[in-house]
Fold this sequence. Notes:
Blueprint: H1 2-5, H2 7-25, H3 35-97, H4 100-105, H5 110-113, E1 119-128, E2 136-139, E3 152-154, E4 159-166, E5 171-175, E6 189-193, E7 201-208, E8 213-219, E9 230-233, E10 245-254, E11 261-267, E12 276-281
Antiparallel strand pairs: 1-2, 1-12, 2-5, 3-4, 3-12, 4-5, 6-7, 6-9, 7-8, 8-11, 9-10, 10-11
Amino acid sequence: MKLFGNKRLLILLLGFICFIALMGLTLGNRERMSWPERFITDTVSWTQGLFYKPAGYIAGFFEDIGQLRTIFEENKVLKQTLTKYARDTTRLNDLEQENIRLQEALGFTERQKQANNYTFRIAQVVAVNPDMLNNTIRINLGEKDGVKPNMAVMSVEGLVGRVTQVTPFYSIVQLLKGVDDTSNESKAISVTIKGKENESFGILERYDLPTEKLIMTKIYPNDTMQPGDIVMTSGLGQVFPKGIEVGKVVSVGPGNFGISLEAVVEPFAPFDHLREVFVVITPDQGG
């Protein structure tokens, strides 16, 4: 026949038949693959590995981007929540001291009614002065953001300090740890007691480093201040606006020469490891 006259075609057919037969013989025992199967399996696996690793890296990259986006949105919501919390806390403190009904009855002007309408601007702490005697931090808000010297700075917990130096994009904040009545650069803080019927005033003059407490002086000798009372800014010192919580009275005792009382105040705000703070801008400061 003509078919058998073609030797090349005959050899190809015989080889194909032998390959099919060899594959069939291996079907009965699948625990051990034949060398053609092993060759094909290894080749395919190696080829898949070339594409799988880059594909895995790419998929992981886009997954990380999606997670970063989620974290960014969560941080944005958290900052907004912290700002609202600080604003509401200060407003509540002020409302406990003044009654709106009395303001209207006394004919307060609109300027007087808006006097405590503070603006809070959140700032990141970008640097901390390692000098323990300096006790300052640097924040990423400056003149371009409306920040000015002597503006109060607080955290969610309470008063942190005040702005001392301002550049276009950054500001230096003096912490309460640096309060010292002997320093020309410091400002004593006029404070009062939260929710007290008989108003009680004093001055936060210094920070006691060994005990990590604030010392409140010039308290009226017959004052009924007690441990546990909440200390807040009075607004009478012309630096710090009123209504910002500072700390809690720990003890009360005789002051210098026995003519006034002196109190030890535990600050609410931690001064170490600060990450985010709020700059308090009053209407008079152009906020």
